[in-house]
Structure formats: structure tokens, C-alpha cells
Amino acid sequence: MQNNVISTTEFITPAQLLAHWQGHRHLTRRVVEAFPEDKLFDFSIGGMRPFSELVLELIRLTIVGAHGTATGQWKDVEELYAGDTKPTTKAGILRFWDDATALLNEQWPSIRPERWQEMDAALGQYEGKVYSIMLYWLDNENHHRGQGYVYLRALGIEPPFFWDRGQGNW
Amino acid sequence: MQNNVISTTEFITPAQLLAHWQGHRHLTRRVVEAFPEDKLFDFSIGGMRPFSELVLELIRLTIVGAHGTATGQWKDVEELYAGDTKPTTKAGILRFWDDATALLNEQWPSIRPERWQEMDAALGQYEGKVYSIMLYWLDNENHHRGQGYVYLRALGIEPPFFWDRGQGNW
């Protein structure tokens, strides 16, 4: 799916980066699954958003980010996804998640190799090199999923192992 | 500090990666500072470790990881750091943190460019390419710092902005 003609001194290839991110996404999906249906939407700590809202943010950023990185055009998620962007059930969130997974896999190979070191304004407003914009999505996912772990622990539920990115059915 | 003769198609250069990680580390340091002294060591949610223990893990991984990446030798932190590796005060943790910052900056330029795509066993036991080992430290930091955000919110304390990696005094 990816151009593999790379120098051996590259830190990470685009194909490796996609696999790395999708591995994290696979883990995040399992954290969604670990939540009881009601707690996914109404449990929170210290006035924070419930995990459903954090996850919807992650899905939006994945879809908008993949498209923006590939095309240079920053569109609203509603322009890029015909399904339900505000699901109110766990099944609906997982469907949205899986569709984002497919969209990310579809867009990734069309990202030009020199794109990562170009300047852009993510979502039309946050200036930076594209690599740093892309890493923001990944870092933000680790950040919010870590918060989901605390919610699960507070609910007495053991979360999946952080290191287990088993490349399953995504 | 870093060899800048790179192709323009590289996703991220080693110098950019160091700056990215140190930006995150700067933010994590500010999260440590935001904790009241006692809560840093005794507050937890759902049976999790207090934030002090999460941070000591991050510091150990930074020191051991930087040295292991640079040299291929995986040593215990006590072999690499002459100071107090089990501080019991916030000031002690911050001192350990800052020393790790300096050690990371010192080691980084000696990492061979082809090192990232080599196989190794992190800490002598976790096999993978070196880039994925290095990303583990970064991802793990985002994960645990996100948990620190929940602790702070539960304590009624507003954490620093996630996106503010102001390259201050690290």
C-alpha cells in the first residue's frame, strides 16, 4: 500500500507510521468496547467529558486529518463522511470508528512523500509542519485513551494492556 | 546538535523528533508542578499508582531508553545516574526530571542514523525496531500524563493546555 523505496536512515516510513497509528487505534477501539453502554455516555471525573465525546473527537480528527494531510484541504467531518457523525450508542460509535479506520487506510497511500515537511494550517488554523500535525492526532489519542483508562479503573473495570496493539480486525 | 543532511521526504528528522519529545516532556514537567506536594505522592483513582510513581517510570525510561538507543546497551537507571532515583519530594522529582532532560539531549546526537530501523530488545526483553521502542517512550508519556490530567481535574485543579509545549527552560 505504500512506496517502500526508502533510505535505511529514515526514522520511520509512512507505512510503518500508519501501522503504528492503526495499532493504537485498535487498542482505543478495545477501550470503547470495555465501557458499559451507559457509562460510555454519562460517566466522567472532575467535570471532564464522558469517554464517548473524547472518542468522537478522535474519530473526527482521524477523518479530517487523513483527508487534510492527503489533499491539503481541511473540511468538516460532515463533508467527508455520509454516515452518522453524532452516534448515541456504542454500536454507532464503533461503526463510525471502523469507517474512519477504512478512510485512513484509503487516504494514506496518496500522501505525497514530501508532504510531511511542508507547512500547513491544520483545520485551517493551527500552523505547523505536517509531520507535527499528524503526530498531534496520535499524541492526542494516547492522551485521551489514557484518560479512558482512569474512567475504567474508577468503574472497577480492568482496561486492556497498553502495550497490546494486536493487529486484529481493524 | 544533529546531522541536518536529510532528504526532504523524511517523515521526521532525529532533531525534530528530539524537539517533539522534549516539548512533551516540558508539558509533563508542568503537570508535575501543578500537583500539590502531598497529592503527588498519595492521590490516586481506582487503585492506580499515584502520579509520582508514573513520573518516576517516565524518567527511568527516558534515561535507560536514551542510553540504550545510543549505545545498544540496556542498563538499569542506577548504573546510568548517580543522583537519587527514588526521590520522595516534588523538588527531588523535578531535579531527577531535569537531569534526565540533560542526559537525553547529550545522548541523542550520538544515535547512528541507521539505528532506528535496526532490531533490538528494549530493556533486554521487548523485541522490536528501535523506532518503535523509542515511540513507546513517547506514547507511554502521553498515556500517563493524560492520567495525571484526570487526577488534577478530580482534585479541582486545572491542568496546563495539552497543546502548549512551550519550549521553555528545559
Automatic annotation (TrEMBL), chains A, B:
The keyword Metal-binding applies. Pfam families: DinB. A divalent metal cation binds at residue 144. It comes from the Bacteria. Gene3D superfamilies: dinb family like domain. One of its GO terms (molecular function) is metal ion binding. Coiled coil: none annotated. Keywords: Metal-binding. Belongs to the DinB family. This is Damage-inducible protein DinB.
